[in-house]
Amino acid sequence: xxxxxxxxxxxxxxxxxxxxxxxxxxxxxxxxxxxxxxxxxxxxxxxxxxxxxxxxxxxxxxxxxxxxxxxxxxxxxxxxxxxxxxxxxxxxxxx
Length: 95
Fold this sequence. Notes:
Layout: H1 5-14, H2 21-39, H3 73-77, E1 83-84, E2 87-88
Antiparallel strand pairs: 1-2
GO biological process, one term: regulation of translational fidelity
GO molecular function: asparaginyl-tRNA synthase (glutamine-hydrolyzing) activity; ATP binding; glutaminyl-tRNA synthase (glutamine-hydrolyzing) activity; transferase activity
Family: Belongs to the GatC family.
C-alpha cells in the first residue's frame, strides 16, 4: 500500500488544511516512509505469540479506602475568595 498525493489532499481537505505543493509532496513521502517501516513487521514470524496490549505486566496499585475526618467548613472557607450560604461563590460565567 502506498499513499498518493490525492490521498494527502483528501486528508488535508478533511482537516481543513491548506497545503502548498511542497508540503503535499513532503507529507506524501513521509507517510510512505512510515508505511514502509510498518510493513517490515509483516516479515516477523509471530506464530504462537500471544496478543498483548503492553509489553510489561501492568496492574493498578490501589490503597485501601479509609475514612478520614473532614476539615471544618470555617477552615476550608478561609482560603475561598468568596463564600455564601456555606458554598463557594464564584463569578457567573453565563450571561
